[in-house]
Design brief:
The structure holds 2 protein chains of 2 kinds. By secondary structure, chain A is an alpha/beta fold. Chain A is about 25% helix and about 30% strand. Chain A contains 6 helices and 13 strands. Chain A has a 9-stranded mixed β-sheet, sandwiched between helices. In chain A, helix 1 packs across helix 6. By secondary structure, chain B is α/β, with parallel strands linked by helices. In chain B, helix 1 runs parallel beside helix 2 and helix 2 packs parallel to helix 3. Chain B starts with 5 loop residues before the first strand and ends in an 8-residue tail after the last helix. The chains are: A alpha/beta, B alpha/beta. At the A-B interface, helix 1, strand 8, strand 9 and helix 6 of A face loops of B.
Chain lengths: ~200, ~250
């Protein structure tokens, strides 16, 4: 069963539909107990980091998320959901995150000034190591990105794949059971569906 | 590798059917939107745009259904525009399954709508669509209401303002070129690229593979939108991508 954490921000329909395409059991919930006991958790997120984490906390979901993550259930953060896995963000002020991964979320400022922000569109991900999440992806797999902030990671071991946009940016991050993707797998065609399907089958 | 240039088929939808006109007039039936979305998706389209050109309320409900069905089956970004007047209209379209919503006339009337939508849903889902026509004395003028109403507003100035108000992307249509298949307005695209930091989607005038290449290479557009050349099956998305790739443009292959 995939449990999508619904904290009232953004449009979860597309993530839900994409999971329904690859697995049979998907629920959306903001119930702390259901989240704490989930056997597979997805944390989505769009828009501003501060607004997202505030809603997560307002609904009393931080503790259940932390407990589930500590229990070792497969956990996937998507876009701002991935960003919330880190310790802090400097988007519109300063906000603390869930601190499951080391690093901070910072504004994207490509050194090459002809590169536009947001980083919006299809870009290739470059895996750094083998992981079941990226099992059976084609070479030069393209994923759909739409973001203006990125994860400035502390521990390079926590980067699973990079993408290149002026600098190299973390595209897939994680350790143990915790994963995060900066791009939108639910919008990344067959490559994205493969990643979601891999996540649904993680043991 | 830099970002792939996006190839975006655009479907003008009226009462649940795809239509295509020349310079915003003379509409002809060009098929079923969902069916076409499937074909484009299978061919490797990087994104889809639906423009709802229906004026009526029932037409709007039909559009929600079209978007819902499409989003259930197709997993690439879907932009929907046409008749979005309020934050609530935008919310409904996003809930139906759109990933981005394009606002046009309403943004001219109420520029703050751009900011409101960007704050509510994130800049990444706010596309400001601008229809422009060359002025005889130089420059471009913004038109609204499907190209029927001149606004007196300078196109480049409006593009800058849309950016400062929080737009995530600009979809710029040259009305002089729309449906003519004589090529994009490259001067306009270059000027926009110099002026704004946002990704620009070029629209209006695509007729040949070279036109698409020119818009990306000379016009420095981030994405090209085309309707006629795809609907009437003059070329497939795959042929476009192969051609661009052969000319050194980075594209996404599936």
């Amino acid at each position: 069963m995939i449990t999508i954490i619904d904290y009232g921000i953004g449009n979860l329909h597309s993530i839900e539909r994409a999971f329904q395409h690859v697995t049979s059991e998907v629920i959306r919930t903001d119930d702390p107990e259901a989240i704490e006991q989930a056997d597979r958790l997805v944390l989505p997120g769009v828009g501003a980091f501060g607004a997202c984490i505030r809603e997560v906390r307002k609904r009393g979901l931080e503790q259940p998320i932390q407990k589930a993550a500590a229990r070792g259930v497969p956990f996937l953060g998507i876009c701002v959901g991935m960003q919330m896995l880190f310790e802090s963000s400097s988007e519109k002020g300063w906000h603390t995150g869930l601190g499951l991964l080391k690093g901070s979320i910072e504004a994207l400022k490509p050194k090459n000034s002809t590169l536009k922000v947001p980083h919006m569109g299809w870009n290739v991900i470059l895996p750094m190591r083998l992981t079941p999440l990226l099992y059976k992806l084609p070479e030069d797999a393209n994923c759909y990105f739409a973001h203006s902030f990125f994860a400035n990671i502390t521990n390079p071991q926590e980067v699973i794949a990079y993408t290149e946009y002026g600098d190299i940016l973390p595209a897939v991050v994680g350790r143990d059971n915790i994963y995060g993707v900066q791009f939108h797998p639910e919008k990344s065609h067959d490559v994205g569906l493969r990643i979601l399907s891999n996540f649904a089958q993680l043991v | 590798m830099p970002l792939a240039k996006r190839i975006i088929p655009c479907l003008d939808v009226d009462q649940g059917r795809v239509v295509k006109g020349i310079q915003f007039m003379d509409l002809v039936d060009a098929g079923d939107p969902l069916e076409q979305a499937h074909v484009y998706n299978a061919e490797g389209a990087d994104e889809l745009v639906f423009l709802d050109i229906t004026a009526t309320h029932e037409g709007r409900d039909i559009m929600h259904d079209v978007v819902r069905q499409t989003a259930e089956q197709i997993f690439i970004p879907l932009t929907v525009g046409g008749g979005i007047r309020t934050l609530e209209d935008m919310r409904k379209m996003l809930h139906a399954g759109a990933d981005k919503v394009a606002i046009n006339s309403a943004a001219i009337r109420t520029p703050n709508l751009i900011t409101e939508c960007a704050e509510a849903f994130g800049a990444q889902c706010v596309v400001v669509a601008i229809d422009m026509k060359r002025r005889s004395q130089g420059g471009w003028e913004v038109y609204t209401h499907g190209g029927r109403r001149a606004t007196g507003i300078d196109g480049l100035e409006w593009a800058k303002e849309a950016q400062s108000r929080g737009a995530g992307e600009l979809l710029v249509t040259s009305m002089d070129r729309d449906g003519t298949q004589i090529g994009y307005d490259l001067d306009l695209l270059k000027r926009l690229d110099d002026l704004v930091q946002l990704p620009v989607i070029a629209s209006g005038g695509a007729g040949t593979l070279e036109h698409l290449l020119d818009a990306l290479l000379i016009g420095r557009a981030h994405a090209v939108l085309a309707a006629s050349m795809f609907h009437f099956k003059q070329v497939t998305i795959m042929q476009v991508k192969q051609f661009l790739h052969d000319h050194g443009i980075i594209v996404r292959f599936i």
